[in-house]
C-alpha cells in the first residue's frame, strides 16, 4: 500500500489516500476511477466548503505533480456526455435548422454551436457547444465511412442507424 495525493483543481484541494499498486495503476489510466476515489476520500474525510477555503491557501499555485499524483479535473469527467439515440436525432434535426448559418460568414460557428447546445439543454440533454460540434464531426466521419464502403463494388452493404437522416442533410 502506498500513499497517493489526489488533486482536485475544481475545489483546489489535495486529498491523501492509501492505495494498492494495482489501484494506483488503474487510477493513472482511468480518470473515472480516479475521480471516484477522490470523491470517496473527500466524503470520508468530511471536507466541507469551509475546509476547502481554509486549505486552499496552503496549496501552491503551481502544483507540482509526481508520478503518483494525479491532476483530476472534475469538469473533464462531466464533459463526457453519453449520446442517446434521441439526443443524436435532436442534434441532427437542430443542425439542419442552423445549417444555413454555418455557410454564412455573418455568424461565429462557436455561437451557433452554443445556440444548438441551448436547444438540446432545453430538451433535457446536458451538452455544450463543443460537445455538439465534436459529435457532429464524429457522425459525419461515420457517415462517410459507411458511404465509401457501400460504394465499393463487391463489399457487403453496411447499415447504420443515422445513415438515412444524414443522407437527407447532404453531409
UniProtKB/TrEMBL annotation:
Q: Which InterPro entries match?
A: Myb_DNA-bind_4
Sorted alphabetically, which Pfam families does this protein's record hold? Myb_DNA-bind_4
Which ranges carry the Myb/SANT-like DNA-binding domain?
A: 82-167
Origin superkingdom: Eukaryota
Instruction: Report the PANTHER family cross-referenced here.
Output: HEAT SHOCK 70 KDA PROTEIN 14 (PTHR47595), MYB_SANT-LIKE DNA-BINDING DOMAIN-CONTAINING PROTEIN (PTHR47595:SF1)
According to UniProt, the name of this protein is Myb/SANT-like DNA-binding domain-containing protein
The species this protein belongs to is: Mycetomoellerius zeteki
Amino acid at each position: 500500500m502506498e500513499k497517493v495525493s489526489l488533486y482536485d483543481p475544481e475545489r483546489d484541494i489535495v486529498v491523501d489516500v492509501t492505495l494498492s499498486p494495482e489501484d494506483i495503476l488503474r487510477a493513472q489510466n482511468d480518470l473515472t476511477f480516479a475521480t471516484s476515489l477522490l470523491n470517496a476520500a473527500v466524503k470520508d474525510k468530511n471536507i466541507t466548503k469551509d475546509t476547502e477555503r481554509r486549505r486552499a491557501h496552503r496549496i501552491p499555485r503551481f502544483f507540482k505533480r509526481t508520478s503518483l499524483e494525479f491532476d483530476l479535473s472534475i469538469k473533464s469527467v462531466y464533459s463526457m456526455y453519453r449520446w442517446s439515440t434521441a439526443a443524436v436525432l435532436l442534434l441532427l434535426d437542430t443542425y439542419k435548422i442552423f445549417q444555413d448559418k454555418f455557410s454564412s460568414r455573418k455568424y461565429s460557428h462557436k455561437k451557433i454551436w452554443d445556440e444548438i447546445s441551448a436547444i438540446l439543454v432545453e430538451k433535457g440533454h446536458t451538452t455544450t457547444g463543443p460537445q455538439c460540434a465534436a459529435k457532429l464531426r464524429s457522425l459525419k466521419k461515420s457517415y462517410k465511412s459507411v458511404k465509401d464502403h457501400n460504394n465499393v463494388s463487391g463489399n457487403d452493404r453496411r447499415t447504420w442507424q443515422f445513415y438515412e437522416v444524414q443522407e437527407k442533410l447532404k453531409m
